Each structure stands twice: as structure tokens, then as C-alpha cells.
Amino acid sequence: KWNKRKLTYRIKNYTPDLPEEEVDDAVRRGLQVWSNVTPLVFEKTSAYSDIEMSFEKYGHGDEDPLDGPGGTLAHAFFPGPGIGGDVHFDDSETWTVRSFRGGLRTNLFIVAAHELGHSLGLDHSDVRGSLMFPIYQGYTPNFKLHKDDIKRIQNLYG
């Protein structure tokens, strides 16, 4: 877990699938999922940040190459210095911020919220329906954080 309440974040680059402001909004809402139930505060910065998010493809400089369309949608690193807390979205996916039942588009808000859970120190959950369940479950318009996710993040941050 992070040993501070105020965390900085930055979006290093953007996907061509969406306007930058839609990416910014999806990330902001993904962070808000967690700040709504904890004392954590997130501040966007353009300089060095605790949590750096980027869109990457295949081998991209860490030990865990992304796998192209489908499969792994993104990965994140647990809290810590350097790469700790960072999120890499697979830019081989087709990203959306809208609700699609089926189809080949992936909802950035839901994936960001899930990956940011890892950035804050949460591992996967075995509770189906929880945000931290390891399998992408798509987007529901009236998204609410599952009580399992709330309990687990509050165990870390109060």
C-alpha cells in the first residue's frame, strides 16, 4: 500500500481510439471509484507522478509484454517506487467509454478502475461481480463498487 493519502497521477500518452478528454474522464472516474470509499486524494500532474498510465503494445520495456488484441487488456504494478503503481493499457485493444454488450470494444473506465485497484495494492478477488475479479465483465451503466472491493480497499486505507 501507499504510505500517503495524496497520490499524483499522469497519463503519459493516449490511444488513437478516443479523444484525449474522454481518456482523461475515464481515468478520473476510475480513480473516483476508489477515492469515494477511502481517504485517498488523486491529483493530476504533468511531471513525475506516483501512478503513471500509458498505452503500450507488445514488449514495452518491462518484464511483462502485452499480448495484442484480446487476452490481457492491461496490467498494473503494486505500490512502490519507479514502476510501482503504474498502469499499462494494451493499445492493441479497441477502447471505448460507452456501453457495448459484446462487440470488440473494451470499456476504458472499467479496466482503469480495476487496474487502479492493483495500483493501490489490491490483488484479484475470487468474488464474481467484484471489480477486482480477474475476468473482464464488461460495462454496466449504473456501475457500483462491490462490497468485497470496498471492504478490501478500506482494510488497506481506512
Helicity range of the residues?
Answer: 10-25%
Corresponding CATH superfamily: Collagenase (Catalytic Domain)
Classification by helices and strands: alpha/beta
Major beta sheet, specifics?
5 strands, mixed
Radius of gyration using CA atoms only: 14 Å
Strand content: 15-25%
CATH class value: Alpha Beta
pLDDT < 50 stretches: none
In N-to-C order, the SSE pattern is: EHEEEEEEHH
Strand order of the largest sheet: 2-1-3-5-4
Binding site for Zn(2+) 2: 114, 118, 124, 132
Binding site for Zn(2+) 1: 60, 62, 75, 88
Binding site for Ca(2+) 2: 50, 84, 86
Binding site for Ca(2+) 3: 67-68, 90, 93
Task: Describe it.
The mean pLDDT is 95. It is built from 3 helices and 7 strands. The chain has one domain (6-157): 3-Layer(aba) Sandwich (Collagenase (Catalytic Domain)), CATH 3.40.390. The N and C termini lie close together (12 Å). The chain is of the alpha/beta class and 158 residues long. The strands form 2 sheets. It has a 5-stranded mixed beta sheet with strand order 2-1-3-5-4, with helices on one face. The protein has a two-stranded parallel sheet with strand order 6-7. 32% of the residues are buried. The chain is 25% helix and 18% strand.
Element layout with pairings:
Blueprint: E1 6-11, H1 20-35, E2 41-44, E3 51-56, E4 74-76, E5 87-90, E6 94-96, E7 105-107, H2 108-119, H3 147-157
Parallel strand pairs: 1-2, 1-3, 3-5, 6-7
Antiparallel strand pairs: 4-5
Helix pairs in contact: 1-2
InterPro entries: M10A_MMP (IPR033739), MetalloPept_cat_dom_sf (IPR024079), Pept_M10_metallopeptidase (IPR001818), Pept_M10A (IPR021190), Peptidase_Metallo (IPR006026)
Cofactor: Zn(2+); Ca(2+)
Active site: 115
